[in-house]
Design goal:
This protein is α+β, with helices and mostly antiparallel strands. The protein is built from twelve helices and eight strands. It has three domains: 172 residues; 77 residues, Nuclear Transport Factor 2, Chain: A (Roll); 65 residues, Roll (Nuclear Transport Factor 2, Chain: A), CATH 3.10.450.
């Protein structure tokens, strides 16, 4: 049994190893994606707080000068007072100082971090069948199989130290063992939660079935009212704050002719960058059509949110991000040391 599992462990590593290493490298970066974006582009993000922020209408008047004739599709509001806000247009995103209205910069096209994110999710492959996502999802399955089989193979000898003065094969073997076991719990968490995200179409319905719950609507249509003046974004924002007290609005999604305002919000305990609470508002009447609070939403939805928070390391903020980033780096160490073990121990052919 042990010999068979060792062979299966080797074959799984040879087949999925490269993709697993890609998951590890990109995952270690993605754990700090917002922080790295702010670090590398301080001029776009950091502002000096003032007594009051300008209205969305005032910010739109300033930002629309960058893309004349275009209407903002959404407003992104920072919850930290020293960070900028941004407006998304068809041609790009405009970053503004929310206190002065000054344009801080423009983004057009995906950033390096966005490409790293897509490399992690789908190998930068975009097609109708989502081939890249399928490959990386199965790589997550391979990662879980490698972790579990590695734990079984490690158990009899339980190596916990590296003999650095030993021959290369022994050093690589010890590094492989130690790096795997010290991060094992988090590798299992990363793998299991990543599989749930990768195979979300199959697994998320199971969350709702297991909790006897159902997701709320993801969009709400409205009936246009002839002659009615659509609600201004600032008024919609004020209604959203009243509808969900204690939650800070993050994104104001502008409506189309037959759709409602969609405002994403976040409670203080929500660590994820995106809002897990949302408010839908009729743009013609100002009526609140739907409110979903992350505190009281369906149990199945809370499982989906928890799964993502565990996988990204957002669950406890920076400490858990650091742990998951470290675990992702250990995946890379596992890949390199495993390849080195195979290379140094492979049989040499006689000439």
């Amino acid at each position: 049994m042990r010999r068979l599992l060792l062979r299966l462990h080797l074959y799984a590593a040879l087949i999925a190893g490269l993709f697993v290493v890609v998951l590890g490298v990109t995952g270690s970066i993605m754990a700090f994606e917002p922080e790295l974006d702010h670090l590398f582009h301080p001029a776009l993000f950091y502002v000096t707080p003032a007594a009051r922020t300008l209205s969305l209408a005032e910010l739109a008047a300033s930002a629309s000068k960058v893309f004349p004739g275009e209407r903002a599709s959404s407003y992104v509001l920072a919850t930290d007072p020293d960070l900028s806000w941004s407006l998304n247009f068809k041609s790009g995103a405009v970053f503004v100082n929310p206190y002065t209205g000054a344009v801080l910069g423009v983004r057009q096209g995906p950033t390096v971090l966005a490409r790293i994110h897509q490399l992690h999710l789908r190998l930068l492959i975009r097609n109708a069948s989502d081939t890249g996502k399928t490959i990386m999802s199965w790589a997550g399955v391979g990662m879980l199989a490698l972790a579990l089989s590695g734990l079984y193979l490690w158990w009899p000898q339980k190596r916990m130290t590296v003999k650095w003065r030993a021959a290369a094969p022994r050093v690589w073997f010890d590094v492989h063992n130690v790096s795997g076991i010290v991060s094992m719990l988090f590798l299992l968490l990363l793998s299991a939660t990543g599989i749930a995200i990768g195979f979300d179409e199959q697994i998320v319905p199971l969350f709702y079935r297991a909790t006897a719950s159902a997701p709320l609507a993801t969009s709400v249509e409205v009936t246009p009212v002839p002659g009615a003046t659509p609600l201004a974004p600032d008024r919609a924002l004020a209604i959203a704050r009243e509808a969900l007290p204690g939650a800070s609005p993050l994104i104001v999604g502008m409506p189309g002719p037959r759709t409602s305002y969609r405002i994403a919000a976040r409670f203080p305990e929500d660590r994820t960058p995106g809002g897990r609470s949302r408010i839908y508002i009729d743009q013609y009447t100002g009526r609140v059509l739907l409110v979903e609070s992350s505190r009281t939403t369906a149990p199945g939805t809370r499982l989906v949110i928890l799964n993502r928070a565990i996988h990204t390391g957002d669950l406890f903020g920076l400490p858990s991000k650091a742990v998951m980033s470290f675990a992702s780096l250990m995946v890379v160490v596992q890949g390199i040391s495993g390849a080195a073990i195979w290379w140094t121990r492979r049989p040499t052919r006689r000439r």
